[in-house]
User: Fold these one by one.
Assistant:
Number 1:
Amino acid sequence: MIFDGYVHQLPDTDPGETEEWLDSLDAVVDTHGKTRARFLLSRLLSHANARQVSFPATVSTPYVNTIPREQELWFPGDEHIERRIRAFIRWNAAIMVVKANKLADGIGGHLSTFASSASLYEIGFNHFFRGKDADGMGDHVYFQGHAAPGVYARAFLEGRLTTDDLDHFRREIGRGGRGLSSYPHPRLMPDFWEFPTVSMGLGPISALYHARFNRYLANRQLDDTSNSRVWAFLGDGECDEPETLGAISLAAREHLDNLVFVVNCNLQRLDGPVRGNGKVIQELEAVFRGAGWNVIKVIWGSKWDELLAQDKDGVLLNQMNTTVDGEFQRYAVESGNYIRENFFGPDPRLRQMVSHLSDDELRNLPRGGHDYTKLYAAYRSAVENLGSGRPTVILAKTVKGWTLGPGFEGRNSTHSIKKMTEQQLLELRDRLHLHEEIPESSITADDPPYFRPSEDSIEYQYMMERRKSLGGVLPRRTTTVRRPISMPSPETFAEMNAGSGEMAVSTTMGFTRLLRSLCRDEGIGRRIVPIIPDEARTFGMDSLFRELEIYAAQGQKYEPVDHDLLLSYTEDSDGQILEEGITESGSMASFIAAGTSYATRGVPMIPFYTFYSMFGFQRTGDLIWQAADIRARGFLMGATAGRTTLLGEGLQHQDGHSLVLASTVPAVQAFDPAFAYEVGAIVRAGIDQMYGPDTPDAERDVIYYLTLYNENYPMPALPEDPTLAEEFSRGAVRGMYRFAAAPEGRARRATILFSGVAHAAARQAVDELAKHYDVGAELWSVTNYKRLREQAMATERVNRLHPTAERQVPLVSSLLSESTGPITAVTDFMCAVPEQIGRYVPSGRPFKVLGTDGMGRSDTREALRRHFEVDCGHVVVSTLEGLADLGEVDRSVVADAIARYDIDPDAVDPFLV
Ligand SMILES: Cc1ncc(C[n+]2csc(CCOP(=O)(O)OP(=O)(O)O)c2C)c(N)n1
Ligand SMILES: [Mg+2]
């Protein structure tokens, strides 16, 4: 399709000339037919293009290879040796899955995906992917997750993995946890895999933002990334995930010609065809081309070229164009005769075209994705595209299960088959021409052999030489620092510790100031990466626009509307802020790219990604999980947190549960700070844990999540007494500390734990309890229930497994035993957050929790806190109830408080409305 554009809106300055052109076209159609007319139009368009007559691009081309045969480059490799290497790899990849399922029935694995993409990878390995010994860290390759067996099989040939390693595919528990992970997991194989990909869609979006981040590093002169390309391999089914295609326009907009997507178009996903009634390659071509990408289709293998060359009437092209994927899939499983009758048969001219081919030859007319010369030409063209400003996508047509035999190839069930019979193994061996290497007698279904050529074989020598000349083996993950980072100076945090005096400010405002100070810090400043998805003004962070500047690869080509303001919207090619627009997924992908730069580039960078807390864990939880897998380091800042604090926005904005979701990710430390000095202490400790000199390496790969609120109140200063100051700061980091001792001289004692903005209700309740009920309540700030729980579980485990050793006491239990009386915890989050420590509260002490369970709603903070029962009155009531449980006050005292604070005991439960 061609975009209509503007032509109908323009005056025709020479109708006579227009008419002549149209008549000529009519004449061509009438005399030579539509195919000829199409041909001429296409020539005209490409000629116009060459004369720089710009014209709206066509978004789809006929169903043929983008690169014509005559423009294919000479293939510099040794075709025969590469085919042999591919055969060895194909064999071992299949055997490792088959064996894994023999050794442990049901352990799974995939045979057909790699079988369809072996050539896609091998062309890359032998000719394109640059390893880390090349200039500047080499290329970054995102492998399709469930093609992992093929990647392991190659590493095995290279001598990087042993037979025993392959036998531990998917067995990650035994051998000291050194199995081969099912999919690319840097968490589990930190020296091997770099990029987790298997959750569909996350690989492509991460790769895209990674390519963008490489440009950011270069533009800010932090690293020379000009020699590194990002390659992402993905499935055609995977393209249905919104993350896969949702960001592709960014790649064109930012001129990411360092990015190559290779889509393995085997026309199938897990259950069946991707587009049975359509053509996935054509659909993807239009989408990518429309987004401004360089699209290279590799549909047909070389043997089709001679048929196309004879296609004077365009009948073959027409047949290719009109055959839907469901039929193409069928041709992959049917006999040559079926193909002759059904694909070529209906038109005598087509039938004639293939009359010289036998049925077998017809069946074996290969698809482009299995043809190394076609693939080489496509990859070469992709890498030579550097400088064009356009990212490239290669759409390669393959057969799912290729070479595995009729039980696999093109079958709808092929994705899930993990076993092969002896007969199938034998057929595979024959198909791969491995008769000499794998004698028939060695093939048993129970213990089929791997095959590795000796180190003096020509195949081994060839593949190793290729990798050496391309900069070493892949994948390989390293954490060697090329450009060290230094720690921020203590002064950077001074403002946080000083408090705000009488001035009412929010923790968000405090954090914004801290972020600015960090960015100004001599040592670390340039390594800070502020990331914001179109919410800076909401968080009051627009004050940073002018000073830090917004990253824009092409600078700022306009004078901003607010140029005369002190805080104008300033873009620059070396701007520091990644202002992502409205894409939390894209922002997370940037967070991951920045947070893994210490490994992928050897250049530590520290992302601070600030978002609407509701749209963090809830919206992009899978990307956060991926960030944990990939060992990203950095800070997630959940601003406008709290179910009752962000007033006015209603239930889709008011976050009372991100801390619960955060509690599910082991690598995340989830903090709920109340005061600016807590924020400062936590951020400082986080940077130190990630990059400081004293952290054990095993503990560095953490993500700090901090909630930030938009409620203003005077921020207390850190106590002047250094011991107390140290205790507060340390306490804020380890999870809790005593914020205030109980008022003296009261008849009864109680303990109140607060987090975040709930400090206000708690502090007020202390006064009320003292004034009206003769209760002295002490106050603790609990900043991190998750950490307290995890520490407690660890001690529990040690106790369980070492029954005769001295009992360890969880930190939270020992700290709470320094307090007195019943305990009430109050939070602006769900009760489940404080309940994480429920089991560890010292026995005999009532533990009450006030939280904001239920759907959020819009009203004033006061009304919301009353509605969710977390205001001062409710804290008093809860504390008195605890005392009543202990028999220290009569239940009528609780009733008195209910009346005093005007609480309606019959109000509807907020959880239910
Ligand atoms: C988010 C997500 N959903 C579902 C899956 C399960 N899954 C794994 S592979 C697959 C099919 C993949 O099809 P395609 O992308 O076409 O890859 P192919 O194997 O055909 O190359 C599915 C659904 C997953 N890994 N991630
Ligand atoms: Mg597929």
Number 2:
Amino acid sequence: MTMRAFRGEMLSVGRDPRHHPDAVEYQPDGLLVIEDGLVIARGAYADLAPRFSGIATEALSGLIVPGFVDAHIHYPQMDRIASHGEQLLDWLDRHIFPAEKAFAGRALADGVANGFLDELLRNGTTSALVFPTVHPQSVDALFDAGLVRQMRIISGKVLMDLGPDGLADTVATGRAETEALIRRWAQKGRLGYAVTPRFALSCSDAQMQAAGDILTAHPEVLLHTHLAENRHECAAVAQRFLGAIDYLDVYDSFGLVGARSVFAHGIHLPDRACARLAETGAGIAVCPSSNLFLGSGFFNFGQADAHGVRFGLGTDIGAGTSFSMMHTAGLAYQAALAREESLDPFRALYLATAASADLLHIADRVGALRVGQEADFTVLDYQATPLLARRTAGATLAERLFAMQILGDDRLVSRTYILGECAWDRATSAFAQPGVIAHAGADARP
Ligand SMILES: [Zn+2]
């Protein structure tokens, strides 16, 4: 048994402050006590210190928050971030599909997967729901890299039998490869599986039905796909599925809408679809930087709230323009304002942590730094840039949090911890495998 403690300013928002005014948990001088990777105590330092006086305590400067949970991101698109010129469907054809074809090669997939997970850690993200490519080896590469880092990574081979040459599977191979991957990776480390049809236009009716059958046979896995992102996409879906009430109804008719379904975007939804999402418990991964980059539109927070739809936040790299969930939270505020809604900075932090964890069905394990949860957290630096230092000096907690969301990027993150061990240290630019170099350079005290 290894026990250790961290002292510092701590903030988490484990429930939606819109419904729970007491959701914000804050200790200006807190103590977080960890045993074997789990939080066993958290509270004011003055209250807890006498109980844990014999434990090595490390002081961390900055704001300690739960590790971020990215509810929608594509790892093979990492190296196509910032590709110029088009909206969704043309952008896929011109920039993304050619890049994804290269993931037939395992060595390339390994290289990108490792660089991708390091980039998540540099941005304070410790859990993510990730699109790989159609190739099963792209899933193996990501899961192998996630297992080494002990990160909470959920992914699954992309199903796209109507995809372009070189990226199309078939109903039979898609089903067989998905089943084999579920068997291979079940119960390994902190990994999870998501059945991943790319989106309605990429899959035949038979393949979407197969995806529904797999979900029924494996109640522990998630469903991860895209929904109503772009107006041209929505028009094409309406044209192909003449019998469907709306875009969500297409997925519903194949058994793909349920409490474990995560739909990216959901920008252009009728009220009926929002009501159906709420009724089934399915959720939306809101991706504001991607929506702005591709000119897709703005998520309707007011409509979603009016219907009680669950939602979290995703970066949607490579249409998204930043790996930073803090920056993404700042853009969510701006997207909400574009529709005359206001997003509170504490609620934005909730969306980037516990709400996304809830979408991914891992909220019992991560997202709030609660006693019993896994000790994944990140340390945010108020002094990350000269401008941020000026703006946060003497400011209230809400002002400091909001300034970090609006002005912050990867430079905000001074440390990222996985299961209580330092996995990224900005001061030394070092990634550490958990348990290996965790204490290097630490301000350790007896
Ligand atoms: Zn996406």
Number 3:
Amino acid sequence: MTLQTPYYLVDKTVLLGNLERISYLRQRSGVKCLLALKCFATWSVFDLMAEHMDGTTSSSLNEVRLGHEKFGGETHAYSVAYSDDEIDAVVASCDKIIFNSVNQLTRFAGAAAGKQLGLRLNPQVSHSSFIIADPARPHSRLGEWDLDRILPVLDQISGVMIHCHCENNSFESFSEILAGIEARFGSVLEQLDWVSLGGGIHFTGENYPLDAFADRLKAFSERWKVQVYLEPGEATVTNSTTLEVTVLDILNNGKDLAVVDSSIEAHMLDLLIYRLEAKVLPNRGGHSYMVCGKSCLAGDIFGEFQFEQSLAVGDRISIQDAGGYTMVKKNWFNGVQMPSIAVRELDGRVRLVKSFTYTDYVDSLS
Ligand SMILES: Cc1ncc(COP(=O)(O)O)c(C=O)c1O
């Protein structure tokens, strides 16, 4: 079946490879792994993911509901700030609720009675190459760091969440930061039942020392007598998904340009935010093209890539690694056709699971 581009294509075989590494980690270390829905919320493949993960974590009422209704398992609720009118619905969908501040904890502890309560801590150290994604940036609002504020509310919580990594593929850096957390927050950790170490750790990567990582987590868990959680987003879906596009026009403005039926701003926004190039494989050959989106943004550029042959209108290009922070961020900028979502099943068959129409565009506005 030839699908109309643009579409995201989730390859379950690649996804399963990541999930098997997650399962191995869980078995060896005893940690529980929760999918971070902020990164990937394509519920058509939740059945496969739920076989290898313990549940989900969320950043909003909508995400916590989705996790509860479509994924199952353990459902953690977290948000930078909850409002009065959503707290009851959040509580109804979660097993644990993690507050970002002592203020929020104090305000909503009553409404959340009966659930396990947690607090986000900020160790004021992090691993992130991007200031915009650095939870330990100056004046960060993400979590409490002052023991004088944390210790008095410890009797109200059973655990904490500490998320301080972004795209961290260095085990040494992870271990060092964890040692810092142990030194700084030991008096807190020894009074808890569970600790979530957040996401941002790229432990499904091929060369990541998974055994050493598992053993470090197990030692942490045994030392403090806590159940450890991880909240992998990107690590879960890395390399599992492509964005399939078609060339609509070829131009030359000193460079050869290929305009495709997609938009980096609308369909892979993170690349623009972090000023990163997309990935195209194998990216070799004597023909160089700047692959550009079709929105009006002058900088709507996926990147410059090498091709074996010259490109022509109608050619297809697969933009790689388009699973994390893409489908959850896609938007209707310029009214550009929103990519459909397709899944390559384990037996190789491709199944269209979602397509978008003019009505969806109209319904997103009023
Ligand atoms: C609290 C929290 N948990 C988990 C994640 C997932 O991170 P990643 O997709 O990098 O694994 C994030 C990402 O921002 C986060 O803020």
